[in-house]
Every structure is written in C-alpha cells, then in structure tokens.
Amino acid sequence: MAPGPPTQHEARPKSAGSGPKVGTVIGIYGGTGFYELLDDARAENIETPYGPTSDPVMIGSVDGKAVAFLPRHGKGHRLPPHAIPYRANAWAMKELGVTDVIGLCAAGALVPEYRPGDFVVPDQLVDRTWGRESSFIESPDVHHMAFADPYSEPHRGMAITACREAGATVHEAGTTVVIQGPRFSTRAESRWFAESGFHLINMTQMPEVPLTRELETEYVNIAVITDYDAGVHGEIEPVTHERVLERFAHSLGVLRIVVTGLISTIATWRQESG
Predict the structure, then answer these.
(1) Which pLDDT value is given to residue 125?
(2) Considering 7, 73, 82, 154, which has the largest number of Cβ atoms within 10 A of its Cβ?
C-alpha cells in the first residue's frame, strides 16, 4: 500500500533539494514506442504519496547514460489525459534522482506554417484545463513558484540542435494551449485559440510541466505536429485519435534519433557544469 499524503515536512521526495543519488539521471515521458531505446531495462514500481504512477518506471541506459522512462498514458494508452496521475509520475521521477526531464508529445497545429510531421520546441504554454491536481504545495508551507518561462534553458537550445542534427523540420518556439480533453476542440474553440496567438494544442503539458518544475527538476518539451486543429487551414477534416496515433508513429524513427542525441547532450552538459 502506498503511503498517505505527505506532511509539510515530507513535502518533497527524498532526493529533492539534494541532487541525484548516482550521477545524472534523465527522465522521459512518452509513448510505449520508446521502450526499445533502453539497454538493460528493468521495471520498478515506485510508491508515492499520490498513489501509483501511470505504469512501472522503466530504468535503464541509453549509450551508457542513465535513463528513467515512463509512458504517461500507461501501456496501451489506457489513461485519458485528465486521468493521468501527474503528481505521482513527477514524484517518482524525482525519487529516482532524475535531474532533467524530456517530455515528448503529439500536438495539433493552430497555424498553417506548423505542418504535420514538423517538430516544435515550445517556449510558452497556456492552461485551459480544470480539476487536475496541479501543485504539491499545501498549507501551511506556501510559496509561489516563478513560472514566466515554463520550459528550461539551455535545454530548449539543446533540443533544437538535436532536432536539426536528426534532419527534422523544427520550429524553435511556440505557445502551447493545453485543453482538458479527452475530446478534441470544436471549430469555434480552435479558431479562438488561433486568434489568441497560440501555435499548437495539446492535452498533457499541464500540469506535467509545473509539477516537474516545483520539484526543481528541469523540463523540456518536444512536440510532434500530427494534424491541423479543426478550425485551421480552411474546412479540413476533423482530427481523430486514430490519425494522431498514425502520424505520431510515422515520426517515431526520427524522434528516437532526436531523443538519443539530446540525452547525450544533457548528460555532457551536466558533467561539465558540475
């Protein structure tokens, strides 16, 4: 049985604030297509005050670099976006000593220049979700985390370079609007988001990003554009879940190359920065 909710003196995992226990560990959130990246992988169930994680965390290595991988939707994509145990996932990553998280996701384009198959390394996000537990902070230990720039630097620069070196078409910035899901947007909602200046749309970046950052772990996102959202690019066919999965799978080979390169770059950066 998992432990109960933490007291104010237990408000962080054991490794929080003291750094990783065994060098740099890089965390990856993604789909099950990334299991084969890991060498000598083993599954580990991590108990958290917030219940079980989406799936057992797979711990292994990529080119000798320690990696913890977690499919945020669970095996078989069984967890819808609003039911993902975001707090348990973030807590488990920190408990394992993860210093840097690479968040991979599918996204819809809200502007025509972001084409299906393109990669995006966003720099901003907007939260349009509701009812999701989005913080570890509870009374009486209250503080307000700075979140003006939600994604970590220099990690975004490293991700952009990794995308270019893999031959991907990459957009170096963008604002992601995160919707509640699991339904997709109406055409009116989609047009509203585009007119508001947002570039891409997703269902999982909130609260995954702020929870990670609250635990003083770095986070960078690489989004794969799988479709134009419903209100974009004229009278397009509405997006479907099947089409998103199909197009994301089509980009999986390049994305694996990107992630492998980014893991190496982050690990080297950590070593050099002490």
Answers:
(1) 97
(2) 73
pTM summary value: 0.89
Residue-wise pLDDT for 171-200, tens only, equals 999 999 999 999 999 999 999 999 999 999
C-beta atoms surrounding 138 within 10 Å: 12
Distance set, CA 2 to CA 5, 27, 53, 88, 134 (Å): 9, 22, 11, 11, 20
pLDDT band at 235 (very low <50, low <70, confident <90, very high): low
Residue 20 has pLDDT above 80, yes or no: no
pLDDT of residue 10: 47
Q: Which is catalytic among the residues 100, 118, 127, 227?
A: 227
Instruction: List the CATH code of the domain at 8-273.
Output: 3.40.50.1580
- Rounded (5°) CA angle 214-184-116: 85
> DSSP letters of 5-61?
---GGG-S-TTTTT--SSS-EEEEEE-GGGGGG-EEEEEE----TT---SSPEEEEE
| pLDDT bucket at 164, cuts 50 / 70 / 90 | very high
Domain ranges of the chain: 8-273
Amino acid at 254: V
Any catalytic annotation for residue 227? yes
Catalytic annotation present for 100: no
What's the DSSP call for residue 237?
Answer: P
Phi and psi at 32, nearest 5°, equal: -70, -10
Rounded Cα gap, residues 255 and 95, in angstroms: 27
Residue 222: how many CB atoms within 10 A of its CB? 25
